[in-house]
Design goal:
The chain has about 160 residues and is mostly helical. It contains 5 helices and no strands.
Length: about 160
């Protein structure tokens, strides 16, 4: 199978939907954090739609990430620009691998913490939250570097199906 020249419309939509859901997960973090601390203190917690939104948002991220991986395995992804330095190709590959790993590990750890009351999973979830933020920042900076310094069309791939 030859590599596609761009991402499919479905791959692009999934990318941006996952991005939006992750932003919401960060916005809804305080409510789930407060609920988790109440659970740790042995307190009963009442139903909170913000907490439920965070829990279901995590499950949605997991489902969408798995869908993205299946599509990537079936359809492939466009290769990096030929003129891109090898170190940047390596950095981009490592960043994408890290992002995909966290899109799976974070919801799994969140579910283990919330539904299984696994303290270590909650602590891991918090550490991964910071790592995810750093990788997203690196991903965005890399895309901007591609666009404005290297003058490549890499950013166009995530807005226009190819």
């Amino acid at each position: 199978m030859s590599a596609p020249t761009g991402f499919s419309a479905t791959q692009i939509r999934l990318h941006w939907i996952v991005f939006i859901v992750i932003v919401l997960q960060y916005v809804l973090h305080d409510s789930i954090s407060e609920a988790w601390h109440a659970v740790e203190r042995g307190q009963e917690i009442a139903f909170n739609p913000l907490v439920a939104s965070h829990v279901f948002g995590g499950i949605l991220v997991l489902a969408l990430a798995l869908w993205r991986i299946v599509l990537r395995l079936k359809r492939g992804a466009p290769p990096p620009p030929e003129h891109e330095p090898a170190i940047l190709k390596l950095a981009a590959g490592a960043t994408h691998l890290g992002l995909y790993a966290l899109l799976i590990l974070m919801p799994v750890s969140g579910m283990a913490a919330w539904f299984g009351r696994v303290e270590a999973a909650a602590e891991g979830h918090e550490v991964m939250r910071i790592i995810l933020l750093a990788l997203v920042a690196l991903h965005v900076l890399g895309a901007l570097y591609q666009r404005f310094v290297l003058k490549s069309d890499v950013m166009t791939r995530m807005v226009k199906p190819g």
